[in-house]
Amino acid sequence: MSPRGELQNERMRAEAVEKITAAALSVFAEYGYAGATMKRIAERAGLSYGLVYHYFPSKADVFRSLVDFALESTIAGMQMILNQPGTAWERLERWSEVLIPNALAGASSRYFLIMLQAMTQARTVPGLLEHINERTAVYFQALAPVIREAQQAGDAVDGDPEVLATAFLSFLQGLALFVFHREELAKSVTPEMLMSVLRKR
Amino acid sequence: MSPRGELQNERMRAEAVEKITAAALSVFAEYGYAGATMKRIAERAGLSYGLVYHYFPSKADVFRSLVDFALESTIAGMQMILNQPGTAWERLERWSEVLIPNALAGASSRYFLIMLQAMTQARTVPGLLEHINERTAVYFQALAPVIREAQQAGDAVDGDPEVLATAFLSFLQGLALFVFHREELAKSVTPEMLMSVLRKR
DNA sequence: GTCTATACACTGATAGAC
DNA sequence: GTCTATCAGTGTATAGAC
Predict the structure, then answer these.
(1) Is B58 within 7 A of strand C by CB distance?
(2) Which among A30, A123, A163 is the nearest to B123, CB-wise?
(3) Which residue spans of chain B are classified as CATH 1.10.357.10?
(4) For residues B167 and B186, what is the distance between their CA atoms, to the nearest angstrom?
(5) Residue A8 approaches strand C within 7 Å at CB
(6) How far is residue A41 from each of residues A37, B120, B123, B127, B174, measured CA to CA in Å?
C-alpha cells in the first residue's frame, strides 16, 4: 500500500472541514448557539464525534468560523456592488436585488440566521460580540456615503445616513427571521419594499 | 406568633413570581432559551434555586409565560389602537408611534427580544413554535384589513396587505435586534421610517 | 486521518428539612 | 413559603487505539 500523497491528505482534510461546516451551519441556524450540540453536528456531518475536535478546537471556534464567513462574504459582496458604476440610487437598488433573495432563500439565507443567532445569544462566546460590532461597522462606513450621495441627487429621503442604514439593515435581518415562520409571505417581500425605507417621498 | 393571613400569603407569592419573571426576562433576553440557566435566574431574582421550581414547573414554563405575556399584551395594544376612530392611515400611524418606543426602549423592549429568542431557537420547547405561529396570525388578521382600507383611501401602497404586514413587522423585529448593537442609531429610527414601508409613493 | 471510550463539569428537576 | 442537598442526564473536551 503506497502512502497517501500530501495532496490527497489535503483533499481529505478539506472535505471533512467542508462537511463539518455545512452541518454546523444548519444545526446552529436551527437550535441557536447554546442549543446546538457537537454531537448533533457530528451526526449531521456523517462523521465521528472526535473528528470534529480534530479540526476545530472548540464549539465556539466552529461558530466563530461561520460568523466570520457570513460577515466577510456579505461585506465583500456589498463593496463590490456599491463600487460599480451608476448613480448612488441605482447601486443601492442593485444591492437590494441581490440581498433580498440571499436573505430569503437558498443556502445563504442560513448565514443570515447565523448572524441573528450570533447577535442575540453569543454573549457566552468570548470576544465574538466585539468582533461583530467591529465588522458590522464596515457596513455603515460603506453604506452611509452612498446614501448621502443619493440624498444629494434628490433620490433618497433626508435624515442621518447612518440612521437610514440602520433602518435598512434592520429591515433585512427582520425579514430573514420571518422566513422561518411565514415563509410564503416573507418571500413575497420585494427589493422595492426594502428600498422604500430610503426613497424620497 | 399569629398565622399569616391568606391575603398576606397571596402577596408573598405574587412578589416572588414577580421577581422570578423579571429576572427570567433579563436572563432569557441576554442568553437565549438554551443558554439561560435556572440557577442564574434564581440568583438574579435574589431567591433560592428551589423556590423557582415551587412557582414554575419547569424552565420551559417560565419561558412560555414570558412569550405569552409578550404576545398577548402587544396584541391587546394593537387591537385597542386599530379599533379607535380615525382613518385607517391615522390608526396605523398611531400604532407605529406606540410601537417604536416600545421596541427600542424601556422594559417592553426586552419582550421584543424574548420574541426574537423564541422565534429563532425555541424548537426545543414543545408546542411553543405552533403557539407562536397561531398567535402571530392574529397580527396579520388584524393588520391586513386596516392596510386594505388605507389602500382604498389612497394612502397605502398597492400590494398584498399580508405581505405588507410582514414587511412592517419584520422591520420592527429587526429594529429591536439592532438596539443591542447600535443603540444610539437604532433609537434614532422614527415611526415615519416604519410607515414608509406602507406609504403610497 | 478517523474512530470509540471516558473524564469532568454543568444543568434541570426533585426531596425533604425548617 | 423558603431553603439546601442531591440525583440523573447531558454536554464539552480529551485520550488513546487503529
Answers:
(1) yes
(2) A30
(3) 59-201
(4) 18
(5) no
(6) 6, 18, 16, 24, 28
Among candidate residues B91, B199, B201, B89, the one with its CA nearest the CA of residue B153 = B89
**Grid cell at residue B35:** 443558554
Q: Which of B170, B177, B180 to mutate to test the interface with A (most CBs of A within 10 A)?
A: B170
Interatomic distance B149 CA / C16 C1' (Å)? 63
Note the pLDDT of residue A1. 47
pLDDT tens figures, B68-122 = 999 999 999 999 999 999 999 999 999 999 999 999 998 899 999 999 999 999 8
Say if domain B59-201 classifies as CATH 3.30.2310.20.
no
Report the gap between the CA of A180 and the closest CA in chain B (Å). 8
Question: Where are the CATH 1.10.10.60 domain residues in chain B?
Answer: 1-57
Superfamily (CATH H level) for A1-57: Homeodomain-like (1.10.10.60)
- The answer to whether B11 CB sits below 7 Å from nucleic acid chain D is no
> Coil, helix or strand for A199?
strand
- What pLDDT digit, counting tens, does each position of B13-22 carry? 999 999 999 9
pTM: 0.96
